[in-house]
Specification:
Radius of gyration: 21 Å
Helix content: 25-40%
Largest sheet: 7 strands, parallel
Strand content: 15-25%
């Protein structure tokens, strides 16, 4: 409970209620300086079971009617189809945070969201989470600190939410999950400090477990998956067709993780390594926790009249914390 001198809690709208949206519910409930206005869904609100008791559920069509009671809208849709439409549309009315993760499309997405947010005099933070997001920041740190070197990013082994969502949207797919696996040989080369040149295919493989819709042609579905630009086409991809029962039994958890390594020289005799690693028991819950921390920062940037689109590169670390600058200097510096 806050005292009379404490600022009002940051009011969060959760747009979408899949695994990520449920994770955002849990993350907001752990933050005393935040409160959930409600979940806004395309489904029948009566059919949605909130992750936190007492969370109200509304139709997404009702979101604009509650604009005055929302400080930040956290967008929990997928990068393949949802966010390219929702991001620019909502950024003209709300301060927003999202996890758009199609790396090759980030510049174009940023431009679309930036135009909308500037027009609406709002602040819209795009592409946060752990990659893009925390890993992006660590890539930047590595290059800035060790300018003579190479950066390597490895994902997995783990279940990718965005890639799984992309597979599920293919016609003929009833359900699916996708795993990314790093190459042990590539990891060993990188950690040895030899600065190997590695292609995309040499660093990772992808593995899909797919439940076919009735009447679907497995060959057509396999080709649609392996040929998908950005997601699967650059990788060696294996597709397994399984039953719904097998998928539910063996692939219901969502672990993930990975690491960023910067290998670089600081003189003629010394190669230095910087490594940042994540091991995640629940990919969506961790990603949601990052989104919520950046929602706090987005609210503060809006109060500073920093309108338009921003990325994690534009956010000072202190803005993520509920602690004051003085508290941070005392406790963490």
């Amino acid at each position: 409970m806050t005292d009379s001198t404490s600022p009002a809690p940051i009011r969060i709208a959760i747009v979408g209620h899949g695994n990520l949206g449920r994770g955002v519910e849990l993350a907001v409930s752990a933050c005393p300086d935040m409160t959930t206005v409600g979940v806004f869904t395309r489904r029948d609100p009566a059919s949605v079971q909130p992750a936190v008791a007492g969370t109200e559920v509304f139709a997404i069509a009702d979101l604009l009617d509650r604009a005055d009671s929302v400080d930040v809208a956290i967008l929990c849709g997928g990068s393949k189809s949802d966010l390219p439409q929702q991001g620019p549309e909502l950024a003209s009315h709300f301060n927003t945070v999202d996890s758009f993760d199609t790396h090759a499309e980030i510049p174009a997405y940023f431009a679309a969201v930036d135009e909308a947010a500037r027009t609406g005099r709002r602040t819209a933070l795009i592409s946060t989470g752990w990659d893009p997001g925390l890993f992006s920041i660590n890539r930047l740190f590595g290059e800035a600190i060790l300018p003579r070197g190479e950066t390597y990013t490895f994902w997995g082994s783990g279940l990718s939410q965005g890639h799984s969502d992309a597979v599920r949207r293919i016609p003929g797919v009833a359900a699916a999950v996708q795993y990314t696996h790093p190459s042990p040989k590539a990891i060993e080369q990188v950690r040895s400090g030899v600065l190997p040149e590695l292609s995309t295919r040499e660093k990772h493989t992808r593995e899909c477990f797919v439940v076919l819709a009735e009447g679907a042609d497995p060959a057509v579905v396999r080709e649609a998956i392996t040929g998908m630009p950005h997601y699967f086409e650059p990788f060696e991809t294996t597709v397994h067709f399984v039953s719904a029962e097998e998928l539910a039994r063996d692939h219901s958890t969502m672990p993930h993780g990975g690491f960023v390594v910067r290998s670089g020289a600081t003189g003629p005799d010394h190669t230095q390594l910087i490594e940042y690693r994540l091991e995640l028991a629940s990919n969506p819950e961790f990603t949601a926790s990052v989104l919520v921390a950046y929602a706090r920062a987005t609210h503060r940037l809006y109060q500073q009249q920093r309108y338009g689109a921003v990325t994690p590169f534009d956010v000072a670390p202190g803005l993520l914390s509920p602690k004051s600058p003085a508290e941070l200097r005392t406790a963490l510096l």
